[in-house]
Batch of 2 targets.
Target 1
Amino acid sequence: MGVKFENVTKMYPGARPAVNDLSLEVQSGELMVLIGPSGCGKTTTLRMINRLEEPTGGTISIDGRDIESYDPIQLRRGIGYAIQQTGLLPHMTVEQNIELVPKLLKWDEKRRHERTRELLEMVAMDYGTFAHRYPRQLSGGQQQRVGVLRALATDPPVILMDEPFGALDPLSREVLQTELKRLQAKLQKTIVFVTHDIDEAMRLGDRIAILRDGQLLQVGTPDELIRTPQDDFIAKFIGRFLVLSKAPVDSVQQFMQTVAVRIQRELPQGGRIVQIADVPLWFWIDDEGVLQGVAGEVPEGADQWNSVNWTNGDAVCVRETDSPDEVFGRLADEEAEALPVVDEGHRLVGIVTRRSAIRTLSGALRRVEA
Amino acid sequence: MSWLADFWSTYGSQILPALGQHLILVGVALASGIIVAVPLGIILTRFPRWSSPIIAVVSIIQTIPSLVFFALLIPIIGIGLQPALLVLFLYSLLPILRNTYIGVRSVDPTLLDASRGQGMTSWEILYMVELPLSAPIIVAGIRLAAIYLVSWATIAALIGAGGLGDLIFSGIDSENTNLLLAGAIPTAFLALIIGFVFGQVRRLVTPRGLRAEVVTKRDLRTEVVVG
Amino acid sequence: MNLSDVGLLTLEHLELVIVGTFFGGLAGFLLAIWVRRRPRWAASFLGLAEVIQTIPGIALLAFLLLALGLGNPPVYVALALYAILPVLSNTYEGLQGVDPVYLAIGKGMGMTPGQIFRQIELPIAFPVILAGLRVALVTSIGIATIGVFVGGGGLGVLIFRGLQTIDIQTMLAGAIPAALLAIVLEVGLSLLERRLARATASK
């Protein structure tokens, strides 16, 4: 179910085109990121796919069929739509929000119920705890997850996402990005994803399309863009990724690991316990992402987290602005296998491990010698 | 206490029919007001440019004192129950119309966008999103209209529509304190009870997900609803 | 009945309205200032004022008639009582609605609480307070027309006389000026409010 733009234009009366002669093909099963500076037309482009905006010129087709040939309502029910503000209906529970379109499509209750359970499980949210809560009782990250689940409710082949993680704290954003990648690997949906965050684009995109002033500048895989940026603007846009691949180790972020962030447990009183990269360390963070404590062991029962000996996060953490030298030193001296990395707001952004440090250093050595 | 029993035996036979008549006046006017003003309010939200002039016109009607309005219309529509109902109906429009318009307009636009994006039709959005979320404000408008109708209906007695106003005016005329009270007290109580009942209705229609917010909002008085 | 009669009655009507609304409005205003730091008192007074407001005009006039006798006194008191809620409610909400940023600025500049109140809070809340006063005034015009039934004066006299004697001309002679008074006050004060709101916003 690929999405194809052919010479698509969107004009508003009395202004320059929001989207100008755009031709782009999104392959079936790929996650295509649309990125560019403010006003570049990425959101308008996205919204033309489900006809929330109608193109003034050109054709958009899904799986070879012109979207104009569909009834807009039916079209939208077959496409998932997730936005930054979530748009979760505040007067409906999580379950009611998720099963909204299935209900409109007249699925029977049993099927809707099963689907909701299935979806909540996919993102480690316990049905019993969350299904009957209202959106205002959820944290930002939880709300966004529900927003994404809602988009997936009818198992649509195409999903549109408009800066869905933009309003979250750094760690929640990491967590959700990881989850999205995991879901995508499993479900193989065609996803068109709008963002203004180049880090996010690089992490998530199978391919990235860079737009500016309504026009497509370049489209390619993250690697392609780094190796062969078409012009100065794009080179500057990609910025630190270029720098990173060439310079020796000068930033903690280069060997900080953020992969495989797993949520061990969502705490009913707020906050959660996470684990990163399968390292045997568990971190307790609150709803803002601020690190509260570190523990080296899992308690006996799943609910015994309160009894665990939490080490104060301040004592053992490393700041992302610390110099790599300092961090290497601490990794060498201290007992711990890994150290948590926090930003200036004391929010957890990743971990550094001895292994990742060594690997990065040897890579840097090789580059310096070359 | 025996005073109460005496009172009731003397005036009870007058109070009940007057109360019944009063309820008819209020009830019919309110019902027809709701039937016209709520859909009209919803329609106005689809055509916001028409809203200012229309609401302005209805406001002007509202500004005119009720006695004056009755007086002005007598030459045209005469006296009796039906003309009274017409006037009461017209008066009930503004609070309901205005609140419906404001309530529906105040629904967060991103909710509407997300709902459209998921494939809800305009009708589905109206029934499942806009109306549930604006119900508290709409009911607040209906409540106001109902309370004021009790008041306006007392004046309607002057043009032969009956109701508790009859007792009050007769009481004043004949300097009969008891008769006057027989009219005034039920009228006051009726208004208070109706106010309370609709207040409860408002609480009932407030969606559970929103309870915390709505209760703390107060209604600013920026529009005149005249006695 | 001639023009000067109408004129006199109009003046009497205005006098009733202005005096009654003034006292009621003043009471509402002072009450609001007194309770603005005491939300529970505020809630009680607002509740009480709402109850008074809910009582239909003719009923309240009837009760006051029993207490004060025929004539203008019950009308004055009724008008004052009805003026309390709009002014109280709007003054209270208006003051609460002043952005705390401005208060912080005032404090930072070294202003006393009294100065902050007079020079920051009141001017900002003024359009809203004025709206409350407007509602009170226009409502009063209406209540005052009913004053005739408890022996009061004003344009209601003409209306009622016209109704009783089925003399349309007399009736209109009372009704039209009353309607005009209401409309002119409503529109005029609304425009004033709008102009003031714009002025304070741009500050």
Target 2
Amino acid sequence: MELYRLNIFEARELLDKRKITARELLNAIYQRIESVDGKVKAFLTLSKEQANEMADAAQKQINEGRPLTIQGIPVAIKDNMCTKGIRTTCSSKILENFIPPYESAVTSRLSENGYVLIGKTNLDEFAMGSSTENSGFFTTRNPWDIERIPGGSSGGSAAAVAADECIAALGSDTGGSIRQPAALCGVVGLKPTYGRVSRYGLVAFASSLDQIGPITKNVKDSAILLNIISGKDPFDSTSAPVAVPDFTKVLGNEIKGLKIGIPREYFIKGMDREIEESVKTAIKKLESLGAIPVEISLPHTEYAVATYYVLATSEASSNLARYDGVKYGFRAEGKDLMEMYMNTRAQGFGAEVKRRIMLGTYALSSGYYDAYYKKAQQARTLIKADFEKAFNSVDMIVTPTSPTAAFKSGEKTDDPLQMYLSDIFTISVNLAGIPAISIPCGFTSNNLPIGLQIIGKHFDEESILKAAYAYEQSTDWHKRKPNL
Amino acid sequence: MKYEAVIGLEVHAQMLTDSKIFCGCSTKFGSEPNTQTCPVCIGMPGVLPVLNKKAIEFATKTGLATNCKISSYSRFARKNYFYPDLPKGYQISQYELPICEHGYVEIVVDAEIRRIGITRIHMEEDAGKNIHEGAGNYSFVDLNRAGVPLMEIVSEPDIRTPKEATEYMKKLRAIMRCLGVCDGNMEQGSLRCDANISIRPVGQKEYGTRAEVKNINSFKFVEKALEYEIKRQIKVIEEGGKVIQETRLWDSDKGITESMRGKEEAHDYHYFPEPDLVPITIEQKWIDEIKASLPELPDAKRKRFVSEYGLPEYDADLLTEEKSTAEYFEEAVKLGGNPKIVANWIITNIFKHLKEEDKEITEILFTPKHLVNVLSLVLAGSTSTTMAKTTILDEVLKSGKMPEVIVKEKGLVQISDSSEIEKAVDEVIAKNPKEVERFKAGDEKLLGFFVGQIMKLTKGKANPQIVNEIVKKKLS
């Protein structure tokens, strides 16, 4: 039996029935990493020593017959979530040797539920990008075609799940960074409602948009992880005091009569034909399960990318100011303070990060603030209102996750605008603060995965999980594995 | 030409909370560098601020006490700039929507009440401290102070003289100390002040170009720095120059303000709403509760002292500046002291001692009980006023003994027995025949000489009133 192929639910069963041990499962994962990660390059750091200790502690508790939800389950964490005592780099030279003296809220919660941290996964530097090509260290490869990128910024986590280098993973999503790589790698990725999951310990890119979520092999695993990481955290003022249901409870419920909105603006002329066909077929499938498709309009969609790149970069320009060489992380020499600052940031940050800091700094300049930041906030309100209006008549909205399947490494690196458009279908969701999930819904003729995005109402992850699960159970896409 | 100054003050007051504004670290002053820090106030990656509710309460109290409108909806903003003592690269402050607006305080200058408008009060976090001494080619950064809660109180340009500025500062200090929201210690930096100053010819309505003077860190310097700056601006204009809008630093050693040469001026702080904190919403009910819990404030107290005790405005103002002084006064009155005499005693004799010894009124051994006791001795003629405010006061301050005890122990009982005094008078008259003749010839100024001689002879114990009477009687 290839233990690394297991999902959370299967592994739980085998562990609890003592058919396997936590160490055996962990070893199988590390062997898998050993054999394929040279190609995939999903991991920045492996935490074997701690993982062994965590697995042994898990085993002890399993032996005592009182296993926690994910006791002994090997999980990979995107390297922008702080892990106490384990290097957390954000794929940036400026934090290359940063070891946090504190734990992020999500990893604390996973820990309290018995997980085994196997390592930290690659990302675009500070989560800024859609391909992991902006990583300060190396590019992760798409397990379905190692000439191609895995998507981003949570490309390392998505690739690790797709390549069975972990049982499940966490990613973060500011403009599509969980869903787009999940789509491109043929796995499930869920961005929860803004405020559902604590951001404490998540290295901030754009504070009003960032949200952590699961990347898993199937819908049920996402529901299991979401159960654990959700809920109000006193250390994150923006986390919401909203009750957390058991998200696995709704899985298997009928979707008969559910109204699914199909936004006109997301099916545009010139879009990739294979993507369009797969998504339309998926909508038919949902219809056959009893859902009712309704054409809707989200009229301000065309402003989403521009709005996003003003707001996200503005917040980023401020969030990244703390990397100044004074307190921790990389410091370059300089003849005086100003030169030290400039050298540190010039050498420590990559090109895309610098581009965004400059964009954001410009947008917040006095004299330009009203024209950019303030205008973008107004546009954000309109985009949010579009969704609110749509949700008056539908229960959820279905769209493609990404306008294209995985592209070739280097194909878009010289054209940032083209790269930004990779997130054209995912960005609005972050601006509106609502939840969305990406699930596999087909393959291109090149055998590249295609993702279906299901968008839900505020704090209604249950509905999208229910629909995603119903679709998944009636298809086989999620069972396909890349040939590595 | 005659000029008048237009002055607005930005006062930074450190709030007396136990913990910092966005984390649980202690705010205690004077600890070893960087011992009162955590990932949040050091600005480590991924950490988030959580607002200390006490800070909202303190700012609300201050706003209510200065007649401000308390905003039901306010929020924090980021003020972005790079400096080693600013760990996040931005200061969390309030910008567009401060917690308090549109207030005022009243000050008494030259026995006249002046109203100084308050534009706004907002909350913000303090920065750390750079240390350049003893580090060779390096500088150190101490982040103990980073994240300590501050209130910035911005006045309207209603202040016209350095004296008014000082009185305004004193009034704010008195209010905040009374509320217990700030200890008002300028020397330790818990109260700081920047001033915006311009001048204009008397009668002109338009404001002149203003300069901002920073680094004024003691009450003494508020007046000095402003006086200097006003003179400087007048000189610039009278020499045909123009005042430049700029930031100037007060150098207390040299006693001058110096230009920062536009360096700070170029700053664009890229303010935007703080996305890591939710807006603050305050319910009227909570404001009402705070309002009901406020102690009697210095202004109200001043007015009450005038009407209830018949004190002059000036005396009432001095007595109500510090809560402890007002309490001292009222205690003495309650114990039977005459309000006007008690007030006089505090303002002249006790304040003098406090200033000399740099002490608080609560720290001295001369309590209201002692004061009332000594006043009753004077009233009964058992001792003289002179004796009371010199020997007796000094002795109480040293030993804490009751004045009546001191009077007995030291044999300071006043001689009011006329026969005893008469003897002394006779002796003095006998010894100074020339002076007696001159006095009789009309040189009445010599009365003082005789009284002095008699007091000397009786070691100051004779009742001066009786001495006076007897001398006059014997020499007429």
